[in-house]
Amino acid sequence: MDSDASETEKQPPSKPADTAPPPPPDGGFTAWLQVLGAFFLFFNSWGILNAFGPFQSYYQSTLIPTYSSSQITWIGTFQGFVLLLVGVIVGPIFDKGYLRSLVAIGTFMVVFGMMMTSLATKYYQLFLAQGVTVGIGCAFLFLPSIAIVATYFTSRRALATGITASGGSIGAVIYPIMFHKLINKVGFGWTTRIIGFVALAGLLVSLAVLKRRLPPPAQSRALLDLAALKEPPFLAFSFGLFFCFVGLYFPFFYLQSYFTYYLHNDSSLAFYIFSVLNATSVVGRITPGILADRFGGLNTLIPISILATILGYVWLAVDNVGGAVVFTCLYGFASGAIVSLPPSILTRMSPSLGVVGTRLGMIFMFAGCGFLIGTPCASLLLDLESGEFWKGQVFTATFLAAGTLCFVLVRVMLWRKDMGWKI
Description:
Elements: H1 29-43, H2 46-49, H3 52-63, H4 69-85, H5 87-95, H6 99-119, H7 123-150, H8 157-209, H9 232-248, H10 250-262, H11 268-295, H12 297-314, H13 321-349, H14 356-379, H15 390-416
Helix pairs in contact: 1-7, 1-8, 3-4, 3-10, 4-7, 4-14, 5-7, 5-14, 6-7, 6-8, 7-8, 8-11, 8-13, 9-13, 9-14, 9-15, 10-11, 11-12, 11-13, 12-13, 12-15
């Protein structure tokens, strides 16, 4: 790892410690090249994670049919939990200057995990390969993708972060389609291997173009920034993410089952609904970023969280395919914003860019815990045989409402601290 120290550690050491680094370029070829590299990191972290729906359906129907849907769901949610939890370790490592080492390790873990998944035939093998190994690899990719972009932009930070985050949605559109087109032609093993090779190609682009702008801090930093835990706005924001992630991902795992068991629609639309959900999430990751640069990230997140909450309750009244497609599109948009806006908000709330990586890891630890328990708990409320989904729908909407209330509380706290209206 010492060989990495990236270009930042090769800078002249004679530079005075108290000299402030140059301001972010907020644009230019190098800055947007970082967005491209970070886009592929997101594409092959959240893109793979959000593409678990087709794997879930295949495991339940073909590969390991003796296991319940709740047990199979744990593979995908543990993958997301590890992705977010390991950020507590990855954040300080990033802050110390080891960008390329993180990306290289993450690339190996994701590709190796997918190759091992292609060979798996038992539940524990799938859990270790896809849930643990791929999850850890995604963690090494995800946080650097957000943190590196934040150091290159100021006024257009939310837009740049939104474009970066859209990689997760685009990946989650492409990978399920690949799975659907290949599974009957080449089988599960080669389908999963091809996905692994595509991930490798994208991640090699990231390795080639990503470059740190800021030198690492002179003093080493602990894994946790304990000062943040004494800041009420930080705590409220963290719990807001926890509640939102508890409820947010239930549709990402069970929309296909909803079409099949509740709407009794087993056409190709039932499969492609995952791609529709993630395609509209692309818009939700980019458009709110533009609004956030103008009005503030938190000011944009709150109304969109309210929209997601309303959609969760409205979902209870949907009883036809047309209404379900409209719900899917709107919910995809709202969920994309909820995932993509928090990093830029956290950056604005942090006392300095030097602790952004550490604090991102901390808030994603909260989000990861929510992600881990949310969908498996909601799945216990389902009865697929009778097509009963309403308890899971209420579960989703209620936790989104709790998260929204936390975000409103953060806004009030920051307003009282005279941080201005654009937050």
